[in-house]
Amino acid sequence: MLYTNHIRVLSINLTDETYKIEHREDLKQYLGGVGVASKLLEENIKPDADILDPSQCIVFAIGAISTIFPVITKTVAMFWSPLTKELGESYAGGRMAMTMLMAHFDAIVITGKSKRPIYLAIESHNVEFRDASAMWGIRSDDVGRIIREREKGAGKRSIIRIGEAGENQLSFASVCVDTYRHFGRMGLGAVMGSKNLKAISIWGKGDLPIKNQKAYFKVFQDLHKKAITTDVMKKYHDLGTAMGVNLMNEKGGIPILNLQTSQTDDIENLSGETFAEKNLVRKTACAGCPVGCIHIGQFRREFGKGYEFEAVNVGYDYELIFSLGTFLGLNDSDEVLELIEAVEDYGMDAISAGVVLGWATEAYQNGLFTVNESLVPLEFGNQKNYLAALKHMAKRTNEFYYNLGKGCAHASSIYGGQDYAMHFNGNEMSGYHTGYGSVLGSAVGARHSHLCNGGYSFDQGGEGNPEELLDKIYNEELDRCILNSLIACLFARKMYDKDTILNALKSVDVVMTEEELDNAAKEIFRTKLRIKKMLGYRLKSLRLPKRFFETTGFGTKIDEAMTYELIKKYSEKCEALMNS
Amino acid sequence: MAKRLRYDMNACLGCQTCSLVCSTLSGYHSLGESGINIKTKGGLQGKFVCVVCAGCTENISCLEACKTGALKARNGGGVLLDKNKCIGCKKCISACSIGAIHYSDNLDRPIICRQCGTCAKYCPHNCLYMEEVE
Ligand code: SF4
Ligand code: SF4
Ligand code: SF4
Ligand code: SF4
Predict the structure, then answer these.
(1) Pairing between strand A107-111 and A126-131?
(2) Domain of B46, in residue numbers
(3) Residues A49, A148: one domain?
(4) Are the CB atoms for A111 and A56 separated by under 8 Å?
(5) Which chain B residues are Cβ-neighbours of A66 within 8 angstroms?
(6) ipTM (interface predicted TM)
(7) pLDDT of residue A32
(8) Cα–Cα distance for residue pair A165/B120, rounded to 1 Å
(9) Which of B17, B49, B123 is most worth mutating to test chain A (most A CB atoms within 10 A of its CB)?
(10) Which of A230, A248, A250, B3 lies at a CB distance of 3.0 to 4.6 Å from B130, suitable for a disulfide?
């Protein structure tokens, strides 16, 4: 906790409905966030039990300077991923970090399994295990509303919840945080579902006396000014990340039609500009973020004859426009928003959902299964059928959809089409196919996400120097171990260089040198690598679908042999770090 | 010229920077110690609303309800609290018809906006602003 020498950990056991608080001085050196969470995961994970065994844990942690500086807004969740079957790590914004800070919990560890569906009501001095039987099967936004009405703390509270996909333990089920943010990736929703845990509300009614008000407020002021005046932040606010649709398409780096191509001359209907002009109704922010990148779009749905319409609001961003739009051959922003709404309601990761459907569409075209299995013909651009497929996936209607719900790596291992099941070690690809950086970055990234090390951001087209690229990716992965211990929103990464971080830490009484910061990063990375090894993961034997090497990214054809050579080198670097 | 705090919440992001800054002025990382509170009307899908002192200039109900003389009318509207005189009876809280005062258990006193205008300086969308009072 801020201004103390310890990390305050709340451990909750769902099986016997008990909880305890520990003050962990030994964890303080890992700052917070991913540093603390990976240590707690390493301690609590049971590598010999099943991934979704009741004895497994979920760890949530906030960072060393959560909420008290601008754009430091995230909470990390760590768990054993049912999707990749190795290290699970996911970040969400919203109000969760703020409420954990105000409730004085740096980390929350949840183990066990409740006998019946429940939700947890957490506040500074109490944890309640409340019956949620009647909420089982209810869509995630309704659950939010019900809990809002039942629990105290309006305005100072965060409510996280799962939908039907989580209850049914879909391997890429997500957790919705405060309506518009998510622990989207890697299946945290399934882990919550396996514990009969429908939702968690956290009420942050406490406070923390500021130790050095003047020094702190000075740094806060500077950073606030930086946040609201930099260009990058302005872009995130204006069109939002959706501005990337045109930019990525121009350079040929946006996955289209299950990555059959990375460029099209017909994308205007899905551009950030179109969404802004046609659908955008408002913008909102995570607690403590003056930028406000969350874009809410509206579409109209006819629900009855005689001009009966409802207006539906959903959040959209670049990744969703790619996965539920370009990847599936859609060409209408309203249709994309309707798919996003469905994915929200069922509570599944939008990226995985779209990418899985992309594979299924092509596999269907190739006759790997028939409409007897898929129940509707899956065709690029056929939004109505995709809506039906999402429903079957969430409900796990039949064996085919059951398998689809385990991700495209799993489904293609059964039905074939592995060369075009677009995933990295089981985690469906993200919206960047920009060259060596994007492929290597996600391949070697600790959680196989484009955000592990931002590999794609190093791609400029052309070959570049692969060795140099590898170093950049490695160093960025380490640097992000620091950012993710604070926990900064990665959109603000340029704002928080090491000096700024050290300065901010100092103003709240955490005095560190750059060397100490770097050492902490190394130890955090080492811990993550140890967990991966413990779960049986070997980077060296990673194999990628052929299509990554067939479709160009930013005009570059990625060489397969060279990629595996580089992956091998990277894994040697990791081993050297582990042994150091 | 004396000013008081005004707001127009259409462009509000719900970032709560205003509340975090106001609490900082009282010396706390908190939302509970803030004179301004941002809530939602019907969850995050609804609009944001702002609960803060309106800076009354006449018929100042909170002040009228206070028997200890802890509240003093502020030039430009609203009130100023003298902590030393306050006995924590909470009469001011029920007296304010817009619910702009709440009690901080941590500080053991009511939290009332003093119309200092700092939050307005930090609102990234200029939802909050200071307006001159006749
Ligand atoms: S606290 Fe309420 S009654 Fe008192 S001055 Fe402000 S708005 Fe008026
Ligand atoms: S709580 Fe304090 S300020 Fe409010 S009415 Fe009572 S004495 Fe006056
Ligand atoms: S005007 Fe000053 S006291 Fe009132 S809410 Fe804003 S920062 Fe707080
Ligand atoms: S600082 Fe401005 S935008 Fe942010 S919550 Fe307050 S009023 Fe809304």
Answers:
(1) unpaired
(2) 2-133
(3) yes
(4) yes
(5) none
(6) 0.90
(7) 96
(8) 43
(9) B17
(10) B3
